[in-house]
Amino acid sequence: MGGPLTGLLPGLEIIRKDFPILERRLSGDLPLVYLDSANTSQKPQCVIDAMVDHLERHNANVARAMHQLGAESSAAFEDARDKVAGFLNAPSREEVIFTKNASEALNLVANTMAWAGPLEVKAGDRVVITEMEHHSNIVPWQLLTERKGAELRWFGLTDDGQLDLSNIDELITPRTKVVAVTWVSNMLGTINPIAEIARRAHEVGAVVVVDASQAAPQLPVDVQAVDADFLAFTGHKVTGPTGIGVLWGKGDLLRQLPPFLGGGEMIATVSMERSTYADLPHRFEAGTPPIIEAVGLGAAVDYLIEIGLENIHRHEQAITGYLLDGLATVGGVTVMGPTDPTQRGGAVSFEIAGVHPHDVAQTLDARGIAVRAGHHCAKPAHKRYGVQSSTRASSYLYTTPGEIDALVEGLNYTKNYFKVA
Amino acid sequence: MDLDSLYQEIILDHYRSPHHAGLREPFEAEVHHVNPTCGDEVTLRIHLEGEPGSETVGDVSYDAEGCSISQAAASVMADLVIGQPVSKAMETHQAFVELMHGRGKVEPDEQVLEDGIAFAGVAKFPARIKCALLSWMAFKDATAQVVSKEDS
Fold first, then answer.
1. What is the distance between the alpha carbons of residues A394 and A399, in angstroms, rounded to a whole number?
2. Cβ of A379 and B39 within 8 Å?
3. CB within 8 Å of A172: residues ≥ 6 apart
4. Residue A46 catalytic?
5. Could you say which of A365, A382, A388 has the minimum Cβ distance to residue B1?
6. More confident residue, A1 or A307
7. What digits encode the pLDDT tens for the residues A166-220?
8. What is the mean predicted confidence (pLDDT) over B15-25?
9. Please, which residues 85-124 of chain B have a Cβ atom closer than 8 Å to chain A?
10. Do A373 and B38 count as a contact with CB atoms less than 8 A apart?
């Protein structure tokens, strides 16, 4: 496969030492080969330490504790918001809303757009999504359009795993109120032309909602450069903890949405008859927020920024190219999605003729190799390509070419085990 | 992780050459079950024969899409229940469910489960238990639908 790989992160072996779990030995004293990072990423020591330090030294509720620990905890929580705003190049820190995960962030938008207000989706309006969305960017829009008598339409996919934009003029019309699209597909790996779609959507006054769950870990995400209106991602895929996600939205649009969940923290004042609501971001953060998780997420985005998202993207492209080359050497493997590593992210879904993905994943697991098997919460995209499920190998900034070699060897072993030629 | 304890030769044999596969007539009930986590699916038809209350399983036919464990389980299940009184088929179902939920500590009875004892190893792989149970649950559901139709 030619000369040495270019584009790998310099000091990869040192970077790997940041992730304690990569030292794990699995059953049979096998080293862990973790190729399931699109599912969840592993966590560097600095994220773990930041969370433990907060628990050990600063733990208190935020914004409602009139004592020193409360002030420290509030400062740490709000500091995390600043870090995330920087990570997204958001014009204002107030536009960063902490949620439970990306699904909740997308549901927040889809639910509040059902309610009376300037952005309300009404009967006869149209919401446009794509066939490559994760279920979390499909189901909330199905619920919204069903409730409101609005119309749900979607961009189809081309045979080579790209969005089919040939009928964009037919789909995005003055009736279109929302265009919701993933930046990077979690199944096909496709990187979508968000800025171009946003430009077309804005021409008709539609709101652009971007699912950046797979983009945020591996690409520089600049909400102003792509001109998104709302953008969601989750903490646990960007080396942060579970239990925290982010909704970013343009301030003037967020202010036009009615409150989502009611409760503590999101109010200005409450009487028994009615309440008035806090300004951004607290308007959308009812109840005690995920404080420790926010601190962890802040440390995580700091970590990614220090390594550099451009560098991580280059590393992912190098590893993905090496993975695609490796898969091509295994007979009977069909890759879904773009085969040009410069056109895609680091999640590669594939089929092996004659072996079901479950059995592939099980056989790889017996060799210490962790991949995902199933529909990856993207059933419509699987159906589009006539497959029920697939095996997905997904790399990240800590993935080595040696781990890809182990996968390829494991796949050959799998074929042998199930006696397919 | 001992792969061979999961993928017994009997299981792989049933996977490669499943028994009673395909959808047939006649049937009194047809059900469609899915495993939502992985997408495995089975469409299963049941045909009962004899007097209500003392029926036997005349035929089980199915169209299953899934992994080796789920495919083999459908094949073994059809072998075990076709021709049996419904009451005995339900006992076999129960024995198989108990084996699957036994965390590898239940000793299977070969008299009852025949080739089904090969699935004993599956119980030690929690992620795969649902694969083995998919067609059994479909069978139970379809049979219950026919019996309840007769009762009403």
1. 9
2. yes
3. A128, A179, A200, A201, A203, A204, A206
4. no
5. A365
6. A307
7. 999 999 999 999 999 999 999 999 999 999 999 999 999 999 999 999 999 999 9
8. 95
9. none
10. yes
